[in-house]
């Protein structure tokens, strides 16, 4: 037990050294309590004012958003109520309380306000650490050299060495509030009971920890649905990516062949499916493959359930996606193939290579190394290809063994149904986390093994 305690103490001391330095001076100690106090002691008034104003803004926000509230007892004096920051933290951890009267706490709103407060306090902590480090380091440098930079010289140095960070700081703050905060809200929703049976503001929601994750593992319905939908999503993403890639490569090779005439006309015709909005094309195909009144069945004189049979629906989905995605890869491959150095082919022919050997041992490896990052991005896009599935099949046909999902549903359309149609927000958040882990892990691994990543 002593060993564990000693190791913990050493780690804590190591973190302290990295943050504030090996020795804490009086200036550093002063900055712990009042931001800018250490800088003032170091005779850097401009810098001290900046740090102090940051702390003052936070204190004023808390004071100005507080209000006087009466105590519970008749003779109890009025006291200050919660301000913006204390109320935000209270709302995040409690998610509201049941109170009488007309107005009720809204748990999702309290969670959002709490996340905003946590992010803002994180910014404050960031500046607080910088403030202590700066005061401490300047004091140590002054003890050694007897000289100290003025605030003007310091700001000039920061502007010259960290110009990119200074300019992008407002954008980073907006990024935190506009992009990171919704992601965090979706993440934390997975740890609540936010569903159709706990629907604010009529009801409060509560923290349930990892209970929702256990449902996916333990309950047969959720487990079967997740495994089935996840496997089909992976199969769909792989097939949709590689069929469009090789289809585009084949068309590019055919069109670029020296025997083909009017290349521009052929390229224009073949790129039309990509030029037309995908949603329009998918809705047209949905009517085209309709079992009852679709033109295809009427021409064939048959009643084929293209979109109502699980196997046929998946095959149709892949075929339509092929038609929509091939033009993009065809134009991409065309651009790369025309930029190849012709001397490579001449050298291969001199060595006695035939056409097939030149393609598979020269053209294809170079082509693959150049398009691999785009291929990974295409895989990620197909993994979350909401439009193709939603507008063509809407996840149909229905699968009675699944929870809120059909045979052709992929994870993203399943999430949409759970939120839009069934209000299962907590389970949808879990699936979002699992998608992030799955697609993030696969994409990261692939990117790290591409030649473009290694060269960079």
Automatic annotation (TrEMBL):
Record bears the keyword Membrane: yes
Designated name of the protein: Maltose/maltodextrin transport system permease protein
Q: Which UniProt keywords apply?
A: Cell membrane, Membrane, Sugar transport, Transmembrane, Transmembrane helix, Transport
Q: Which GO terms describe its cellular component?
A: maltose transport complex
Q: Where do the ABC transmembrane type-1 domain residues begin and end?
A: 230-443
Its function?
Part of the ABC transporter complex MalEFGK involved in maltose/maltodextrin import. Probably responsible for the translocation of the substrate across the membrane.
- InterPro entries annotated for this entry? MetI-like, MetI-like_sf
Q: Which organism is it from?
A: Vallitalea longa
Please state which protein family the record places this protein in: Belongs to the binding-protein-dependent transport system permease family. MalFG subfamily.
A GO BP annotation = maltodextrin transmembrane transport
- Quote any Pfam family the record assigns: BPD_transp_1
Q: Which GO terms describe its molecular function?
A: ABC-type maltose transporter activity
Among Gene3D superfamilies, the record links this protein to: MetI-like
PROSITE patterns associated with the record:
ABC_TM1
Location of this chain's protein in the cell: Cell membrane
**Bilayer-crossing regions:** 48-69, 109-130, 163-191, 229-253, 265-285, 315-337, 358-380, 428-448
Q: How does it sit in the membrane?
A: Multi-pass membrane protein
On whether Cell membrane is a keyword of this UniProt record, the answer is yes
